[in-house]
Task: structure prediction
Amino acid sequence: MEFEPVIGLEVHAQLLTQSKIFCSCSTRFGAPPNSNTCPVCLGLPGALPVLNRQAVAMAVRSGLALGCRINRKSLFARKNYFYPDLPKGYQISQYDLPLAAEGIATISLPADPSEPPSAAESKRFRINRIHLEDDAGKSIHDQGGTTQVNLNRTGTPLIEIVTEADFRSSGEAYEFLSFLRQVLLYLEVCDGNMEEGSLRCDANVSIRPVGAEAFGTKTEIKNLNSFRFVRRALDYEIERQKAVLLEGGRIIQETRLWNEQTQSTEAMRSKEEAHDYRYFPEPDLLPLVISQEWLDELQESIPELPDARKTRLEADYGLDESLAGLLTQTREFADYFETAARKAPPVKVANWMIGDLTRELKRDGREIADCPIAPHHLAELVELIDTGAISGKTAKDVFSRMYQSGEAPARIVEREGLRQISSEGELDSVVDRVLDANPDKVEQYRGGKEGLIGFFVGQVMRETGGQANPKLVNELLRGKLKAKS
Ligand code: ADP
Ligand code: ZN
Ligand code: MG
Result:
């Protein structure tokens, strides 16, 4: 029997506000443990929450960017459970009426290598809802047998994005997560850092016989700290479920943890012993009402999103799809490109960026924002090559000096005397000298051994310390060798 996976994702994204969602404590990561706390986020009796307007704005913008309907009125609810990292004894979330619902993500999927080559396929994945909630603190279990808790994260604003179970492979789930992260980064509402927990994903998966309508029993996988883990964990879990069913067993609805060491999922708790959250309306917060005016303003503030930008770059700069895709990975990278491409041939600028520039940045673990080479300097370098002022080989050298010093390429070229000799006047005498010094080779060339052109070019390059423009040298040599015959 053949099975098909069915996958749905629940993604938590920390919003990049300065302060927490219901108090004015800082959200800065890495502050001394428990220093960013106050009576509200510590859940002390009598302390009342005040909703952070920025958090709402970011959540609404995320909803709009993901094609959701924004509910002009939404409600907060208490989700009750007991855990040491949750001092209030409940999480403030949204339940019946979330801030945003019914979104769509249209994603172009990379061609399946096992299928015949065709245009990249795009698929629509539905988003069920996006709601606002507060984050819990962090328990630290590896402190010599005891557990400690850091409540700095308690009350950090989160959005939870819940998808429909529309993914049919781990690869589709992976592509969606990459897409989502990219959109949140473009919106500047989340830093997307999975190691620091700013973006977290739980994956729900079941399998069903191919052709069946009804979903099978799902398991939920937690503890997925990178998109790669999500893919691996799903692949493992799909195979595990197949094996269970083929042996005549049944899948138990449970939460499982991904163990990176053993590369497997392990049962954590079954649904029978799972929490009964006893959701109820949050009495300390009024319904959240978004005015049409504010909604319009937030809609206006949505920047050009990755897909639109990619399409525009293809059209405006004559880039192919893959190049445009690479350039629009982040907003900053695309900005850099557009600044440089205004002053030099775009495709050449793009190739420098995804080649040498990316390699240097990666090696140093730097972001494009900290790139020592200013975009107009990269454009200047491309121009220097294009006009024949320096050779492609010299350009590599100039590029690494630019990267080290941040200097303008023209300055480096002048100071180091790297300018290519591109004037006929200057090269003429050198070419003559080389021909005069090798009468026998000239004879052989004229006798039909045209391969000797390489020898002559080499000699001229040596005489000029490698600075002659090879194309021009070639032309001059051929002209003279013909003229004398
Ligand atoms: P729960 O009540 O267990 O939280 P939800 O209905 O809220 O389940 O769904 C949570 C996530 O699980 C959603 O992303 C949803 O698409 C996905 N999901 C629900 N049922 C299944 C299933 N049978 N197989 C795979 N994913 C599922
Ligand atoms: Zn606080
Ligand atoms: Mg649920």
The two ends are 81 Å apart (CA to CA).
